[in-house]
Fold this sequence. Notes:
The structure holds two protein chains of two kinds. By secondary structure, chain A is α+β, with helices and mostly antiparallel strands. Chain A is built from twelve helices and twelve strands. In chain A, the strands form three sheets. A five-stranded antiparallel β-sheet of chain A has the order 4-5-8-6-7, with no helix packed on it.
Amino acid sequence: MNNFDYQQASDVAGTIKLACDNSQAKFIAGGTNLLDLWKYNLVHPSLLIDINHLSELSEIRGRSDGGLRLGAAVRNADTAYHPSVETRYPLLSRAILAGASAQIRNMASNGGNLLQRTRCYYFYDHQVPCNKRNPGSGCPAKEGYNRMHAILGASEDCIAVFPSDMCVALAALEATVNIVCKAGKRTLAFADFHRLPGDRPDLDNHLKPDELITSIDLPEKGFPLNYSYLKLRDRHSYAFALVSVATALELEGDIITEARIALGGVAHKPWRSAEAEEFLRGKPANKENFSTAAEIILKGAKGYGYNDFKIKLAKNAVVRNGMMALNPASQLPGAQPSA
Amino acid sequence: MQTEPQKSRQGTSDTRSITFRINGEDRNIVIRPWVSLLDCLRDHLDLTGTKKGCDHGQCGACTVICDGKRVLSCLTLAVMKDGAEITTIEGIANGNELHPLQQAFIDHDAFQCGYCTPGQICSAIGLLKEGKANTREEVKELMSGNLCRCGANVGIIDAVMQVKNGGSYE
Lengths: 339, 170
């Protein structure tokens, strides 16, 4: 652990300037991941810039286009329990509440949730190589104990998974991420925010070091009637997903008019398949069709030994969660499978 | 975790003067930016009721109430809480009268070694204040951030349910 300086900025422009002037600076909001990484000697900030006092990052408000803006510094719990999120985007609320613990959700910020790093144990262990921690050093997870690792979108260099629950729902809801930097502002579609590891597994996403997430926008369509978040893990609660599924459906009678299915715990980013979602459009919402969709989603999935089971688990989870989305009231606390 | 800093000391080591209101009392303290709220409480303010378990946000032993919310003091920088109102296990009893959760933990044998107990009780205070848990299953889910390695979990949930159903707590 290195020592660091600490400053607060009173506005976004001042915050960006501080970051640009200090190449080893990091923004801090909740700190739940950053300080943990710091204690593990995985980040060495020279300066922490506290963004909790920036009012434009600290609110949830409706947008003129009918959507909802989630401030980047708003806490995960305050987001999950916000009346507009609970009623209009219950899938997001469910996903957030399936993650971490109540204490961590009270602390962790929305922007920070997007930026949390993998929980691959080889990444945390300085005694072994890791391409994400030390590019070019190797990936022992591929031949190691890889029970939690990726089955989709992995590379020769990295089979780590992105651990967020919240982001799985944000991917399904097609949120957008608002970013500021010295040059101005930009917005990324959620699917374009995180990246697959390729030959640069050290990069989790497309955010640059001096860029700041200011908010996350949810589009008007929130799928409040037919949705489900299912999280499967080794412990009943307070554990990262082996596989999670966010399903959002629009139905006319029992015919699916729109389907969104995003998987967590299986890849370096939340995983969606346009082909599977297109397949479901116009079809009855039943086990057979969800099963075909699951086969499409898991096409090309590859296990590394200890995680082979995740391919079948993910397929079954897609089917089960599709059926649970038909009756959201059946969902249990902690995104457990219903009976 | 290595005990020596891996990198040379970066940044400046300026100390900061901050003020908390802890258990109803204003405390001013001069502290370095990297000191966690947990270390601040235990090592600088002699409030050792709050326990250091994993120091990584995985066990919940360090849970305190900060501005009305249960948080992990090990993953909180003290310097970020200037002006905050903090309640620790030392501040929940009313003089010699135990807090209802303290009494309920005794009634239900909700501990063995007792190391997780301050965090469990502070977490339960937060849980009851949040008001999101109605059923026993929901209480279990929303208390999952506090681990008990002695296995007193059934007693812990019994104790929380007793106070929740009794309805008398701060």
